[in-house]
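I hope you will forgive my troubling you with a question about protein structure. I am sending you one protein, given as its amino acid sequence and as whole-number tokens for its backbone shapes. Thank you for your consideration; the sequence and its tokens are set out here:
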Amino acid sequence: MRVKTLFVLLIVFVIILTAGVPWAGGYQFRYKFSPATTYSLRSKDHIVTEGNMGIASQMEMTEVTLCKYRFGAPDKHGNIPFKAALVKSDEKLLVDGKKFPPSAGGSGEQQRWRAKGVITNKGKVISLYLQGHKQKDETFRRSKEKEVFPFPEFPARPLKIGDHFENVDRYEMEGMILVTTTRYTLESLQGGEAEFSIRFFQETKRSPSSNVNTTIKSRGKGQAIFDLKKGFFREIKMAIVSEMETKIPQMPSTPSAVPAVMRTRTKVKSIQKMDVD
């Protein structure tokens, strides 16, 4: 009898505790941007690649960018129009410790872009137009989606502490399929913020008809802070280690410095911070 009474008391105690927790039933995460407000996203990436690359044994790059965003009012379905621009990009490159000109992609003016599009309030990009770029290449468009709006897409369901969701991206390039999975786990809900831990996985899958002999395997982890009141990710930090192996066909015209098998290891540390201007 005492055991039964104690069990009932425990149930009542749990009900009282959870009744005092505002998100005991889970929190429905959605993006909430204020119309006619300018947002700034500051990013910094530090990338170090080491290996037998032929022309070098180490490459180190630091890139700092600033993007500006303006969002419109959501429609009845929760879809949010936006305009965005990369307004600043500074890149520094060291090759075996020596300063080197920016990468082939260019920097500064050449890297800047302007875009407009629509996202859902869960964070899915449903339309995107990049000024000055052809929109026919699907791989290019999808990679640019992640550059223009580099934030997770939330699930439809509410999340409780310990719940996780995944974003999976799949790109096909010349017969090589690159699959990226990012897993977000809700660790805490307190003080007007939600904290997520992040796990990152990336691997290549070779198409049966492909002659590409490159394999990539990446693993990473990080943290993200979501501002519950303002409705966006205030900060995202990531650390990723990527290993790549490429088998290079040896021909009479192949330079002697080019190895038959190129193996590299890349370490990436990145931080993104967003706020209202």
